[in-house]
Amino acid sequence: MRLKTILKLPGFRALVKGDPDREISRIFCCDLLSIAMSKAPADGVWVTVMGNRNTLAVASLTDTACIVLAEGMSLDDGTLEKAGSEGIAVLSTDLPVFDAALKIYQAGAP
Amino acid sequence: MSQALTFRYEIDGDDFTRAGEASSSMKNKLKQLGLDSDVIRKVAIAMYEGEINMVIHADGGKITVTVSDTEITMVLSDTGPGIPDVEKAMQEGYSTARAEVRSLGFGAGMGLPNMKKYTDEMQIDTTVGRGTTITMKVYI
Ligand SMILES: Nc1ncnc2c1ncn2[C@@H]1O[C@H](COP(=O)(O)OP(=O)(O)OP(=O)(O)O)[C@@H](O)[C@H]1O
Ligand SMILES: [Mg+2]
Q1: Quick check: B104 and A52 CB within 8 A?
Q2: In terms of residue numbers, what domain contains A67?
């Protein structure tokens, strides 16, 4: 599945589009950054409620393709801009973590 | 590359928002050097955890990274409070992180165990009241 499939999902707002043709590896859910740091898969979709600049740092270091902020969380404008320059997509949804991950899974994520 | 390359970073102690920038910059340099992605990932994880620890627990510090033909050496030194019980600090789940820091997603007590797991050698030299120096090596 490519990133563009997720970008179009109803109920998800694309705050940063990243590279829509990027191939997605896996979905990963976690809110503790040290755990995400060691387990987030490269080219993955990371679903979390933790929306701050450190989330982006972890996503960048782990080569995460897309951050999905659940429960209506967001990132400040400076961080979104940085995500754009690093080619990391950022989505926001009002869904809880599990439901958000399930929707992406059902859309065909590996 | 026959001569070792050295990179130095100053880590600001009270700027949370910038924590991780040194590790990001190092990761990009290693990419430019064409190193194996597995090696780069290990260095990025270990250095990031060390960098964050310096900001959270020790009010900043210095990081020196040396890249030779055979290994990458990271030396992280701070003049913070030191670690009273290293064995305890190395256990998964042990953390003294403040509530405000936890609310940002830190404090799982996984940083030091991650650093150990992702490096080939790790040594902690620490003195309470004087500071901590952590040396880590990743073989290439
Ligand atoms: N540079 C340091 N100076 C002083 N104390 C430190 C330093 N690094 C780690 N510690 C101590 O060791 C403990 C464990 O560190 P570790 O990185 O494993 O967990 P954490 O930073 O508390 O949480 P996490 O890394 O999961 O966000 C810390 O809570 C702190 O008490
Ligand atoms: Mg830590």
Answers
A1: yes
A2: 3-106
- What is the CATH classification number for the domain harbouring A34? 3.40.1390.20
ipTM above 0.90, yes or no: no
For residue range A41-93, what is the model confidence (pLDDT) as tens digits?
A: 999 999 999 999 999 999 999 999 999 999 999 999 999 999 999 999 999 99
- Which amino acid residue places its CA nearest to atom 12 of ligand 1? B89
Residue A73, helix vs strand vs coil: coil
Six-digit token string for A3: 């990133």
Question: From ligand 1's centre to the CA of A38, what distance in Å?
Answer: 16
| Number of domains chain A is built from | 1
Q: How far is the CA of B111 from the centre of ligand 1 (A)?
A: 6
Nearest to A57 among B20, B107, B108 (CB): B20
The class (CATH top level) of B5-139 is: alpha beta
pTM for this entry? 0.92
Residue B108 phi, psi (nearest 5): -75, -15
